[in-house]
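Weekly structure sync - notes
Attendees: PM, LS, DV (DV joined late)
Agenda: review two folding runs queued last week.

Item 1: First target. Sequence and structure tokens pasted below for the record.
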Amino acid sequence: MRAQPLRRARSVTREFLHSEAAGGIVLIAAAVLAMLAANWPGVAERYFHVLHVETGPVISPHHGPMTVHLWINDGLMALFFLLVGLEIKREFVDGRLATWERRRLPVIAAAAGMACPALFYLAVAGGDPALVHGWAIPAATDIAFAIGLLAILGKRAPTSLKLFLTTVAIVDDLGAVVIIALFYTAQLDLLSLTIAAAIVVAMVGLNRAGVKRLPVYLLLAAVLWVFVFRSGIHATIAGVLAALTIPITKSPAAPDDAESPLHRLEHALHPWSAFLIVPLFGFANAGVSLAGSSPAVLVEPLPLAVLLGLFLGKQLGIFGSVVLADRFGLAKRPGWASWPQIYGVSLLAGIGFTMSLFIGGLAFAGEGALIDDVKIGVLAGSVLSAVAGYAVLRFAPARRVLAVRALGRRGDSQG
């Protein structure tokens, strides 16, 4: 008789781990734990101390000895960016972004959804030269959080909306990668950069030669990470570059083809990214001490710029661009999605947690006080966007419902 509850508990656990909401929920829990650890008397000091414990050799003279924080932000997050790169390549080669017709709306929405937050940020904080470098902080969307909330809403969010948000977030990630590579690069070590470039060329050559053994690519990717880390370009870019060289077998009718190295690697990495790497990053980076702070900190230039960029910039950029694209015939809005639902998804895109914290750490590296201000702005803007987006989608009528209501009014008027 005892086996039945145990079996049922295992079934519920397995169902949760395979749900779309799981990664977002685990990430939320990690962020909450980080805030508790950073503000719990007796725990906070240990929390910040452990993050900066030296745990390895000097791989790059620029960074000095490796610490727990460096291993998470530059090491583990390179695996996260490897997964991001795999998703981008799959979508562009064999997925929802394989044709320009499918790319048009997500590209328009993502571009506007990155430009508007940056403009809001600069409008608030651009007057201070010390803060200008953070303009890209509110430009990115956290896909795990956003998709997790959409999954919790269930049938209240049509599949077309989930696909739209996913594709926008993927294009958004691509934009974030480009921004990191171009604008958040330290002084370059040309020798390391040359070696890194040679490794990428070798990986591309292996791909062209038909080599499909993943261990070969992963070994070269590890060496690539070392030299990109030493070069001055952020080490996570190594993950994206490596991903673009992984062979993919096109299989429109069977997108999870077991013979495709890219699909196999993507499926192998996804649970590690969703349940370990991203939550660990959140735990290591979301913690900010609020001792001595008051709500007034939110109206200081840096937190306010990030908050408004995420909450107002994202929704105006994405929703406004979709409305204009639909109105002028550039692209059609997602099928069976009402305008209130599209607005709700535009709000959810303002959840910038992982990428925003990551870019904030790059923009103000070594400036603890400014990074804490970034964290406050990111957390406030992301929570506000999440609550508002969830509320709008929870009560927004579906397009089918609006169509039925319109037909009913038309019938009443004719009667």
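Item 2: Second target, run right after the first with the same settings.
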Amino acid sequence: MSKKHRDRSWAPAPIALPDGVHVIDDHTHVASVVPFAREMNRQAIERDQPPVPVYSVDEILEQAEAVGVEGVIDVGCELPNLKVAVQMALDHPITVHAGLAIHPNEAVLHGHHGVPGPDGLPLKYQPWHDVSFEDALAEVHRLATKYPEQVVAIGETGMDLFRTGEAAMEIQRDAFRAHIALAKELNLPMQIHDREAHKEVIETLLKDGSPERTVFHSWSGDTDLAQIAKEQGWYLSFSGASSFKGNEEIRKSAAVVGLDHIMVETDAPYLAPMPYRGRPNAPYMIPYTLKALADTLGLSITEVAKATRRTTNAVYGV
């Protein structure tokens, strides 16, 4: 299907998890789903396609709960979105928990130190990038200490050598190291963003010493990297990307680290799982990813769901 005719509508709700079986979306950006759906609706109307409904945060959470996704870890990783994630956790104390950090690609933009990466996109500075990275990270620290019941993780942090050029690599690495230190100081789990930077991320973690609970969000490594994760006791969180054709190594990584070290996520509004790749994503889509993992592991969705729920509780206490 061409871009003009690409289906921008919401995927149908998956079959709900069995009664009494619940999971938590380990990593999502619920607030961003709303403007994403609004943009999909604009594009659909522009191309004479059926309109795309734009749901509220409350509706998105209700849709997730209806299929067995009882909670989410909502990640704020740009300076203006830090308080948004915390406020969502305050507004939904049972179902929403916050993860906070300055995203690797954001870290180099603060203070206008960005360098274009292999993706070829131009640098785009926002007003908040006038703030230094140190001051931005200080806000992460402030919110994490002020709202300890709401903030359950430092993340997403790490390295991204696809969006950020090699000339800014060490700036990004220094920001990653600062987050590692912060997670240790606050005794919080850390969620890692690793894109085209496996070697650099692992080198940094081994050199600095990883936090006790280190989670690779939207795992993109192969089974060799998963073996390193197993040896270090790191956790892998699987997004819809694990269901994509050609990502068999990602799926096989789950068996390498074992059921007690895997979690499931959406990374919404992106990475909708197959067979709905390219459509808007939201926490209600989690069962599709669970099925991809279950098929790979030769287990039932119920077994995998229960395992990810136990692991999420062990890592975050939620």
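Discussion on item 2: The chain has a mean pLDDT of 96.
Action: LS to circulate a short write-up before next sync.
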